[in-house]
Amino acid sequence: MERTQDSSLSLKESLYVTGNESTALHTVDIWQPKNGIKSNGIWLVFIHGGAWRDPLTDSKSFQPAVSDLWNSDSAKSIAGFASINYRLSPYPNKVEAPSSPDDPSRNVCYPAHLSDVEKALLYLEAHYQIANRYVLIGHSAGATMAMELQTCSLPNPLAVLGIAGIYDFDGLLEAHHHPTYKEFMENAFPDRSTWKKAAPCTNLSLDNLYERAKLVIISYSDDDELIEVGQAKSMLERIKAGPAPQGRVHVVKATGHHDEMWEGDGHVLAGVIRESLELIQNDI
Ligand SMILES: N[C@@H](CC(=O)c1ccccc1NC=O)C(=O)O
User: Fold this and answer.
1) Residue ranges per domain, the chain?
2) Which segments does the entry list as coiled coil (predicted)?
């Protein structure tokens, strides 16, 4: 499906899984300049949050930041934007949009969300050759997935940017006693024996995709009311304990509440991305 939003950008919603396995959430939104392709420009690839279950937080959460970035000086270095939808875990008590047990797009658990993101990255590589020129950006559960991805055959990112991510699962439940946290974590990761491997802070693999990036950037807001600052601190320690040279790891501060980072006019998310692009450009 083709749509227009900014006059000089075209938006296409592509299916990255086809055939019997395809569901309504196997889509990736792709924004590209109408006036010609920048063959060596940067791709910004976004993975949304929403606790692996909220259908109201989807690929469209990147749209305000896309508009902001496209209308700024950063546009000259950008070849395209992509925002990935992936199957969700059940959420039958979501009042506005309860999941039904026979909806194949809303009844999965780990690692299905992650394998969808992998497929979307492979689709983007096959169609747009994003390897070595894309910034992988995740917010909240999307940042968890950005840091969970393993290299396998995935395209190497230029940088990985995790914003307000959940990286230490046990730490999250220790810090928050509201039943929602246990509910969404157990929904997405019902088998506790997978937690050590699934949580980026406790996974000791050397094959993390972020290890192949030139820069790893951790972003958080002191005013995030849903995710404690300790999550970002623990992830920074984890990255610094890995084989990555320390100079590759950066902190870019965000501002505002958890969802204010992408909501509204998207200027917080766009600002964090802009600062990250500057770090990348200074590094090249
Ligand atoms: N809106 C979500 C909650 C949510 O997104 C969330 C809540 C607490 C901590 C992190 C969250 N999201 C991470 O992706 C829900 O309705 O379950």
Assistant:
1) 2-283
2) none
Is the CB of 227 inside a 6 Å radius of any atom of ligand 1?
yes
CB-ligand 1 contact for 53 (6 Å cutoff): yes
Q: How much is the ipTM here? A: 0.99
Q: Identify which of 176, 160, 151 has the alpha carbon closest to the alpha carbon of residue 219.
A: 160
**C-alpha triplet 105, 110, 114: angle, nearest 5°:** 75
Distances in Å between the Cα of 161 and the Cα atoms of 36, 139, 157, 186, 200 are 27, 9, 10, 25, 14
Q: For the chain, 284 residues long, give each residue's pLDDT as a single digit of tens.
A: 444 457 799 999 999 999 999 999 999 999 999 987 777 899 999 999 999 999 999 999 999 999 999 999 999 999 999 999 999 999 999 999 999 999 999 999 999 999 999 999 999 999 999 999 999 999 999 999 999 999 989 999 999 999 999 999 999 999 999 999 999 999 999 999 999 999 999 999 989 999 999 999 999 999 999 999 999 999 999 999 888 666 799 999 999 999 999 999 999 999 999 999 999 999 86
- Would you say the CB of residue 226 lies under 6 angstroms from ligand 1? yes
User: Hey, which CATH number is domain 2-283, 3.20.20.70, 3.40.50.2300, 3.40.50.1820, 3.30.460.10?
Assistant: 3.40.50.1820
Distance 57 CA to ligand 1 centre (A): 9
Active site (catalytic) residues? 140, 224, 258
Q: Report how far ligand 1's centroid is from the alpha carbon of 54 (Å).
A: 7
Which residue has its alpha carbon closest to ligand 1 atom 12?
51
